[in-house]
Design goal:
alpha/beta, OB fold (Dihydrolipoamide Acetyltransferase, E2P), 7-stranded parallel sheet
């Protein structure tokens, strides 16, 4: 495809003009490229044309008929005019009505023949006879475009916007696609197209928008050969970019860390537990990366409680012993604070200095960091902002990577002389998604929990079973254990009618007057949250009422009960993270899911998955099936191009093929010099996200 064709504004295509172009721009359609990949969200089969006498009420029908009469009818309601056309095919009559469209009088006149498509209704006035309200229409004799667009075919239905009817957007898309495909050249290497049994690009674009393909099921599922071609292309562009990034990183010279491991041996001496075999294996992979000449880019994936933080700390010690600083970036202040609380004690016990750097922290230790007096800096995105300078940054650890993304990772990396990067996530990710989010990273999995960990018993309760919940909490706390009670909001919300944490604490104080009950939530100041968590850790608080601020990072081995109120309001990933706050000691732990109201099918599936499974990867797969890839993390993956056509669940097989082809092509031709058109398309796909090619 010619490069300038991509950027050609739709406004200048015949039949569009400035007004329609403004409406199309609301849908994100400004250029030909935008239009080509603005796919129909469904299709209607309007090919059959039955006799009017045989059509059925409340069904979508397409009829061919001649106009007997056409009149504009005034109504008693102010400003309401109805244009009525009575049509016949010789078997019966039908009245088509268009509301507040008086201009139709100049289009539809007695004697012409029409094709009408719409839902058939009974006459409102007479109770019998056939009507269609605001039907799609096509004038048979005067179809200037020579092809049916709105009727007598499988018709595309697009998502639209105020002021832009289906008919208008369909006509506009027809003009754009006809114009674009006349000059369209296929940018994909022919051997890749043939090897994967895909149609050419021109046919794919035309048939996705205005199908000749007659398998409605395939069209509606997005699995027609033409949909598959466009999905393959999109996944191929994504994977080509990742392959180029990964190859560049492979040849990027990093720091060769020369530490002998004295600090790591010291850590093993002071730790109150033994490292698992999986932790030792992953530490070995990381240290091997750090000793090599190339810059490390490694992802550590591990389920809740698998011990990722100690693995990351071990890598930090390697950097520090080699004379460098280490930084750990977390997505939220509460998680950054939690990491700081856990690590600064270990660091200080080893004679090292750790500092916390967050947006709300007033006394920011910027000078100490720039002078190299701080060994480990733990913080939020504040770490990548202007004014934060490191003396000798050697290692960057990023926690919960999906909340940051490629761009922020690159910004933090610029704070040092190409430091090693270690990414951690406690969010188990299905394989298809990990290939998309982390395709440019090496990959380590901590697939073993510490010894003596018992699976958490998870149970679902309804409001009438609260006495059972209270009985279990009382029994556990009397044994000297502790409990969390998590609410989805802080204060009462009439709109959502949720139980709130503040009132919840008051109710629990009435229910358990003999126990000490605390409250923690996101609106508290960091030092207030820290004080509450410290009291809970010391056992001074027996029941901690909380919002989801304790979702990740909190480690209190003595806590054995997690009650999640309004569990139906939480996502699967969130429920699994919350459950991971208990079960960290040797005692049996419990996760109690309290659900209110009539449950949706999706909520019922989520809660059943939680009761049935404890394995994070299995839960992630189920979450992926229930919600799909777009919502899996709650926030969009920053720095990663959007998938407009492909679906990672439906197209998992295509993703494998696209990845294989992309990585092979980049291996053979890293700069895609043999394929200038493809190079241009890949650069455009990643535009504004990341510079894939250093030039061009």
């Amino acid at each position: 495809m010619k490069k300038d064709l991509f950027d050609f504004p739709v406004q200048y295509i015949k039949g569009i003009g400035p007004r329609k172009a403004r409406l199309l721009s609301r849908l994100g359609i400004k250029s030909i490229y935008d239009a080509l990949y603005y796919l129909p969200h469904r299709y209607e089969d309007r090919r059959s044309s039955p006799d009017i006498r045989s059509i059925r009420y409340d069904t979508l029908q397409t009829v061919m008929a001649k106009v007997l009469s056409a009149n504009l009818v005034e109504t008693k309601r102010a400003k309401m005019k109805i244009f009525e056309a009575v049509v016949t095919d010789g078997t019966a009559t039908l009245t088509a009505k268009w509301f507040n469209q008086p201009f139709m009088k100049g289009i539809i006149k007695p004697g012409i023949s029409l094709v009408l498509s719409g839902t058939v209704k009974k006459s409102f006035v007479w109770g019998v006879g056939y009507e269609m309200h605001n039907p799609e229409y096509e004038i048979i004799e005067n179809d200037s475009q020579g092809e049916k667009i709105h009727t007598s075919r499988i018709v595309p239905i697009y998502r639209t916007t105020a002021g832009l009817s289906q008919r208008m957007i369909r006509s506009a898309m027809y003009s754009i696609i006809r114009h674009a495909t006349e000059e369209m050249e296929d940018y994909m290497p022919g051997e890749i197209v043939q090897r994967n049994h895909l149609p050419c690009l021109r046919d794919a674009i035309r048939n996705v928008h205005f199908p000749d393909h007659d398998d409605m099921e395939e069209l509606l599922r997005g699995t027609s050969p033409y949909h598959r071609r466009l999905s393959f292309d999109e996944l191929f562009m994504l994977q080509t970019g990742l392959a180029i990034l990964k190859r560049a990183q492979t040849f990027t010279r990093g720091i060769t860390f020369q530490a002998r491991g004295e600090l790591f041996r010291k850590l093993l001496e002071i730790l109150p537990f033994q490292l698992t075999g999986a932790q030792k294996r992953v530490i070995g992979e990381i240290l091997s990366d750090m000793k090599s000449q190339r810059a490390m880019n490694r992802l550590i994936q591990g389920d809740v409680g698998s011990g990722k933080t100690i693995v990351a700390f071990s890598a930090m010690l390697q950097a520090i012993e080699s004379g460098y600083q280490a930084a750990l970036m977390a997505p939220t202040e509460i998680l950054a604070e939690q990491h700081y609380l856990n690590l600064h004690r270990l660091a200080e016990a080893m004679g090292l200095k750790a500092a916390l750097l967050t947006g709300s922290k007033r006394d920011k230790p910027l000078e100490e960091i720039s002078r190299g007096e701080v060994d480990i800096v733990i913080g939020t995105h504040a770490l990548i902002q202007k004014g934060v300078e490191f003396k000798r940054l050697g290692l960057v650890v990023i926690d919960e990577q999906h909340r940051f993304g490629v761009l922020q990772r690159a910004l933090l990396r610029k704070k040092g002389a190409n430091p090693d990067v270690l990414v951690m996530t406690a969010t188990p990710i299905p394989r298809t998604l990990s290939l998309t989010l982390y395709g440019d990273l090496d990959y380590s999995v901590i697939d073993e929990l510490p010894p003596n960990r018992r699976p958490v018993v998870t149970k679902l309760y309804r409001p009438e079973q609260k006495s059972l919940i209270y009985s279990l909490i009382r029994s556990e706390v009397k044994k000297g254990r502790q409990a969390y009670v998590v609410y989805p909001v802080i204060e009462e919300s009439e709109k959502l009618a949720l139980k709130d944490a503040i009132q919840g604490r008051e109710r629990l104080e009435r229910q358990f007057p003999e126990f000490r009950i605390g409250l923690i939530h996101g609106r508290m100041k960091p030092h207030e949250r820290e004080e509450v968590m410290e009291r809970f850790k010391r056992g001074e608080i027996e029941i901690l009422v909380s919002t989801t601020v304790i979702e990740v990072g909190v480690d209190v081995p003595n806590a054995t009960v997690m009650l999640i109120v309004h569990a139906e309001r939480f996502g699967l990933s969130q429920l699994h993270q919350l459950r991971g706050r208990v079960g960290r000691g040797a005692e049996q732990s419990y996760c109690l899911l309290l659900a209110y109201g009539r449950l949706s099918e999706e909520a019922r599936r989520r809660l059943q998955v939680m009761v049935s499974h404890t394995d994070g990867f299995r839960i992630a797969e189920e979450d992926f099936k229930i919600r799909g890839p777009g919502e899996l993390f709650g926030t969009r993956q920053s720095g990663m191009p959007d998938l407009r056509v492909a679906n990672l669940i439906r197209d998992a097989g295509l993703l494998d093929a696209a990845r294989r082809e992309a990585f092979q092509l980049v291996e053979e031709d890293p700069e895609l010099k043999r394929y200038p058109q493809l190079r241009s398309v890949v650069a455009r796909y990643w535009k504004d996200k990341l510079e894939i090619f250093r030039t061009g």
